């Protein structure tokens, strides 16, 4: 630890010492949620398992105890993380805050690695980040033994702990070896952290990491600053996306998820041609290009990344203002994790998704055609159904999301359905017509896809309807009163509910057993009213992009916004000099507070959340100068 940060003395009680670290090092005034309890548990030498949503503030849960234990002469904390790409920035952020930290991974030269090892072995380091495969090498284990013998092995933090479970979505076999930490160093406190763990995964983590004696801390999974918006695809989804970005997120950082590499490339190209600063990211790109794009996304402001789900593991960029899905994610867990990358700084952010019939059909087919066994597929179908129910929902999205994770909540007031309760209509009769039309085809030994079915229902004459004599069917034209869009919605819902299946290469439609109840009129089907197609640029907030642009996300007026921009420009310079992402120097929320409050002197500046002692000393007078003080 370097001066000038004034740390608690070893005689202070844990609680007040933890608060001192929080304010002196990180510049924050209060712990969030369960952070304080977690810190105490680990600092006092106990084990902990922490389940906290992305952006909840997991890092402090191990960084504060590590600092406390280090000031008490207990040596080095070892942080296990699979995210090699992030270690550099995490360590940079700690050093900026005046905490001596380092990482060991394959990106270091032999000489650099030896230097880090020397720092570690001397006990001078407060935190050492390492990848799991390094941790379990005989050489590293011997070094840990030596530290332990000298009382200099302070604790272990195991980040992304769900990687130890095959039930999770990021299983990594190297994580299995981490059980040896407990076997070899039973007296060293451990904290395992994850943002995603259902009951099975949680049980797995406890068992595999031998955390039976750990206190388990489960936070609410709610992310109140994220607004959930799910819209139906209407003709051109990417136009919908563009309008969403232009109207509400002009010049802001965002992530757009697509299912295929091809679509990623095309979407990024197209957005660029429309003036959006977008970059593609997928596993098929050259490793170098990928790294460069990720790096630019982290370091530059207002970049949009278009990506497959290969992107994001460990993107802890705090000021991502939106996450958009052009294709359905795999399930609700994936949706929640991906959308969770928005708004980690706590400022308003949006999760936007567009979905349509083709998504439903594709996802079902991918499950049906996968080589997995039937039990597994059944599980996957159940998860898909839950996601589709979320899409079709007419009530609060957040209530449904949280219910999925076992939490009860009240309508949130911050999702599309709460803000604009959708009109619904009774589609029971329409559903019956649709099902009986499929049934008529079936009686003739035929099956067709959605397009033809809807043509027959609407009585639209085509070559195909003529060729098959379908204008003779009793269902011909029985649904002329509904639009094609409405029929698609009905069909989508029927597929989502499992009454109809889309089969084979041509997605031909087949009735399922449960359709009988609907045909008989025993099941009510209510649907969202299809949304009107809005002309481009006429969205609710159109015109907001006109300058001078106040920053509504951060609640700044035009003058404050100008100061904010000046601070950001200054920050860019500093970040470049230090080779770190801008947010490591100060986060947007902190700069915004400075711009709003206009601190008169260093003392006032130091009161602002996010300004720790080291940063105040290093940058304080510069900031006052930028603010014209
Ligand atoms: P997670 O790892 O859980 O996704 P982080 O540890 O990255 O979350 O924290 C998310 C954001 O919240 C970071 O910008 C962090 O600085 C901020 N943060 C965490 N704890 C606090 C706190 N007690 N007060 C203010 N900001 C906090
Ligand atoms: Zn809601």
TrEMBL record:
Provide ranges: composition bias, Basic residues.
Answer: 535-547
Whether ATP-binding counts among this entry's keywords is: yes
Name the EC number(s): 5.6.2.4
User: What cofactors does the UniProt entry give for this protein?
Assistant: Mg(2+); Zn(2+)
Q: Which residues form the Helicase ATP-binding domain?
A: 39-215
Q: Which Gene Ontology molecular function entries are recorded, alphabetically?
A: helicase activity
Key words of the record: ATP-binding, DNA damage, DNA recombination, DNA repair, DNA-binding, Helicase, Hydrolase, Isomerase, Metal-binding, Nucleotide-binding, Zinc
UniProt domain HRDC: residue ranges: 557-629
Classification via PROSITE patterns: HELICASE_ATP_BIND_1 (PS51192), HELICASE_CTER (PS51194), HRDC (PS50967)
Q: Which Pfam families match?
A: DEAD, Helicase_C, HRDC, RecQ_Zn_bind, RQC
Q: Where is this region: Disordered?
A: 529-553
DNA-binding is among the record's keywords: yes
Q: Which SMART domains match?
A: DEXDc, HELICc, HRDC, RQC
Enumerate the InterPro entries for this protein: DEAD/DEAH_box_helicase_dom (IPR011545), DNA_helicase_ATP-dep_RecQ (IPR004589), DNA_helicase_ATP-dep_RecQ_bac (IPR006293), Helicase_ATP-bd (IPR014001), Helicase_C-like (IPR001650), HRDC-like_sf (IPR010997), HRDC_dom (IPR002121), HRDC_dom_sf (IPR044876)
For the Helicase C-terminal domain, which residue ranges apply? 237-388
Please list the reactions this protein catalyses.
Couples ATP hydrolysis with the unwinding of duplex DNA by translocating in the 3'-5' direction
PANTHER family reported in the protein's UniProt record: ATP-DEPENDENT DNA HELICASE Q1 (PTHR13710:SF105), DNA HELICASE RECQ FAMILY MEMBER (PTHR13710)
Similarity comment text for this entry: Belongs to the helicase family. RecQ subfamily.
Annotated protein name in UniProt = DNA helicase RecQ
Lineage here is:
Bacteria, Pseudomonadati, Pseudomonadota, Betaproteobacteria, Burkholderiales
- Gene name as annotated: recQ
